[in-house]
Design goal:
homohexamer, 237 residues, alpha+beta, Ribosomal Protein S5, domain 2, 5-stranded mixed sheet, 4-stranded antiparallel sheet, 32% helix, 29% strand, Ribonuclease PH (chains A, B, C, D, E, F), rRNA processing (chains A, B, C, D, E, F), 3'-5'-RNA exonuclease activity (chains A, B, C, D, E, F), tRNA nucleotidyltransferase activity (chains A, B, C, D, E, F)
Chain lengths: 237, 237, 237, 237, 237, 237
């Protein structure tokens, strides 16, 4: 029934290659099927004004898409003079989600900036960005710990994200672009490795959904995130 | 336990005054406690390019806050040169939510723009904007139907929104600002009058939540939205 | 002869309601006929760089219109990326006019920001903004004096403004929108309560005017401002 | 008493050199004392949307200052990303004033853009811009008439402008920068060659003024503009 | 003598991998040492206004750097509101250079947009972008020719670029970042495969250069470009 | 053969008038044929952050064109919200070129800003700007030395620029606009008075060039710059 022939609860193949750029403190290329995202974590010399002197750390994120990561070329946001609404929403989500897995006291007063740049898009780019972004963050934090700059591990639990939706009337896991563009309801679930929910974002796009369906979608999300956390652990072992 | 002395499942008083500006096709001033929002619905002569010739209608929304609607004065977005990320997120949510209650074929090829301007803020402004925005939309559509420009009612069901969150470890309904600024988890539930879910947005802010808590929050939201739909019906009767 | 049936020298009804928002140090809703403006005065923690260390105070103003305050919806300035030329002109005028009634030494090194937001427009919005803005300023200064932060009253005299113009060949007072859009000459007179002139702005729009007409317009303005000052005093008594 | 030693009612020397750039349809360099402004009038192939098909012409203006036209270097507006409030006000004033001397029916459906660029500033740049701008406009219209593109002269009467103010308690004519920066009250009077008033803009800057003083200022302005109109006529004879 | 141990006239290893994104009509990942650039060529449905109806084609280019492609994180240009001067210069150079190898009549009235995004930077990114950009363009044109949309090959000759400079007093070929940041003179030479010069850009940065040195640099550039053209041919064979 | 009737190696008449604005520390009006540029050098009270505390000086430049300096009116960059790519390229070139003739230690920690504003354009504006900009810089530095603020002359050698190109198949010197708009290859050569090269920028615009032609162009440039340096010396003697 799904365009890709996958089962309703079947994820696309996931791969995470680390160390893809020599400059960043942490980096990876995450592939969820044909969705490819480069994630880097940069230790920044400056902290935002609102944490100065607080002793607390900060993790922030930015998101971008290469102009031809998509089926037809998009305008480059740098030439339009601003980031679009969708970009702003996504990067705020990535930052908020990653922070939910961080002990900001243990991190200490420093900022880590996570950049997620989509090289090729086929649905679920924000979920790939969060999942890969956590890997880059993990690697950067490892470096800080190895150097003795951070003593207690500030990463409480892995953070991963997966999309779910209702496609052709059926709850499905990990939508690709052909599904995403047709789904009447879709959304993103961000969970920690310990099963706690961090963020739920379900949106109707021309349809609505019932509480029962909400339950099924949560089941799918839990199963998907569990697989992603395995891949994160393998990549950062 | 709540700063306002309300019960965990108790809403703030709601009032909706219609016809507050003589120019708009539909308008209201909605008050949810000390959160006051002016909502107007404007019939626009032009439709966005992507629906031209489709015969389908469009509903869009914009959101703003008066600079001193808040405890300390905010910078006016018109002077900063752009709408902030929070504003963009909120107005996209309002538009998407209202469209989920609209039969775009019945509306016909026309655009209605809903403006939600916060006069005084005390938490839950986006929920008040959606709930009041629907009232303004209802009144503007009534005008179109009375004039014979629209035959079948394009409004399928009322759309209303309420915030819920976990405050001091307890799920609570309709957070005011003192609660909102302390809650470790909070979010917004947008439902139709027939009980169908349109949008769920739960975010951790320094805490996480379990599936059980998610269930309780959904219960609270359903009860809150039911009360708001009553107020919407009374205001537009 | 006037569309509203008013005499040539007759003002629209004026009302000033104070305390319309709980956050601002001073606030009012001023109505000059169908022109409704919310004015707030905010005590700002910071002063502009050019007065730092001078011991002098500063009063500044910003002006905005809700998108549907007018007959047809205007674009929201926050979405266009900048304030239009008309807005910039008006808010500079409001700030300059209010400062002309302030003893900046007595105010002390602090800034008060006056925001004037038009809820409904029917001509003369900048005059209503100045007149209502002064009321908000008065209330905020009263608060400072009550708290003992300011000892000598820094408000020398009330400041109020009224529009005049030549409509259908006749000098008229307090133009509403139907008159304003037809008048060949119109302008604004800002005066202090003691009768001194602060600002005169007369513009030809397709017509010109003689020195004699200028005299008549000044007579009208003096009579109009006197009535506004009475309303200001009543509201702040 | 005046820093320059001039009498209270004495203008600075005025010179107007025409034809200063080979490309523009009309151009001049106007000098009012040490204030030097290059004015060009350009016949534009396009008209603004709001006059399309109306048969009416349009005259618009833009104003700029070279960064080092002033005592200390100003930031170039092209690098700040927008024209400042003062610039916007001035160029709107120039355009409005010039249009008050134009018969838009006689001009026919075409646009003339007047650019006024300040090479050296010493007070009164906007008045020099209006006075020189009219000369450039006159020359461009002459060209149109010579070519037979315009039959009836669309320039009803010359338009010229002069500043007046109250300096050291005395009404003075044509303020230079040292006076302008000290004057408690100053403003601009734009008149037609036939003595009709087009625009009056008097502003208090830390002082106020009486009706009597307003009369004296009008007397000075009438005398000043009469001299400028002579210079305009000589330059375009 | 060179930090990398290379000979004065020795290039870094070059590799060009094609087909790196499934959406673009042509794409490659070019590596010149540690400088890695993704180049895509997109066939655009629209042409710029200035070629409409001319029958001539257009090739344009855009350039970007991932924020952490460099040693320390750069601000993302999309968040600063505009492309910096360096970016604008580079992308204009890429477009101009590629067009110098295109027969615009043979291409026909269509636009190809070449995007060059730097994944990892180590000096010479603009040269890598031109060289890789031509490969992406070649592949996209091949597709057009295979589909019969273009009959005569519009690509006259390959276009490739290499940097040269004077490092520690010696003319060197293909500078990497440690050399680039120290070189007193450096620049870029863009040539066609047939040896014709397209663009020469030599700049002093704290030093100057003689005509003799200019000759040696040209020799180096010719040898470097010959090697790059071989790599281009191998990649697109 | 040249539209102007000049020989292939003949420059246009050059004149340099100094002291054209009373405010700037150095200024001139340079005319290369019908290309007229006002250049000012301003001593700035502040230095850019990257030289603070270094003891080194900085020279920067900005470039602009009056809207009607060209055959048809251009949009004013201040109204478009940003400087175009061409402007940015040119002003970076001017600054870089002038700095190549400056001993930044001798200048001491101060910034000089050179503004080059084109009053009338007929090709070669950037070369006129560099040549005239150096004159303004020379005069400003003279002032610093006279005042004893700078002891050792920081200007190593004059800096001047000339354009060359291939017009109708022939290498020509100092292109005017009719040639510039037809030339298949053109560029700019910036040299010091001692004959050292500072910058070479040759670009193909629809044609290419050989190494032999490159040699001839360099010959022409050396002869042209020698004449300009004479004019610079005469003007600043």
């Amino acid at each position: 029934m799904r365009p890709s022939g996958r089962d309703l609860s079947e994820m696309r193949p996931v791969s995470i290659e680390t160390g893809v750029t020599k400059h960043a403190e942490g980096s990876c290329l995450i592939k969820m099927g044909d969705t490819h995202v480069i994630c880097t974590a940069s230790l920044e010399p400056r902290v935002p004004p609102f944490i100065k002197g607080s002793g607390l750390g900060w993790v922030t994120a930015e998101y971008g898409m290469l102009p031809r990561s998509t089926g037809s070329r998009m305008r480059r946001e740098a030439t339009t003079g601003k980031q679009g609404g969708r970009t702003v929403e996504i990067q705020r989500l990535i930052g908020r989600s990653l922070r939910a897995g961080v002990d900001r006291v243990a991190l200490g007063e420093r900022q880590i900036s996570v950049d997620c740049d989509v090289i090729q898009a086929d649905g679920g780019t924000r979920c790939a960005a969060i999942t890969g972004g956590w890997v880059a963050l993990r690697l950067a934090v490892n470096k800080l710990m190895k150097a003795g700059d951070v003593i207690t591990d500030p990463l409480i639990s892995p953070v991963a994200a997966v999309s779910c939706g209702i496609y052709a009337g059926q709850p499905v896991l990990d939508l690709d672009y052909p599904e995403d563009s047709e789904a009447g309801v879709d959304g993103n679930f961000i969970l920690r490795g310990d099963g706690q929910l961090i963020e739920v974002q379900m949106s109707a796009e021309g349809a609505t959904f019932s509480r029962d369906q909400m339950g099924t979608l949560l089941d799918l999300a839990e199963s998907g995130v569990a697989q992603l956390v395995e891949a994160q652990k393998a990549a950062t072992a």
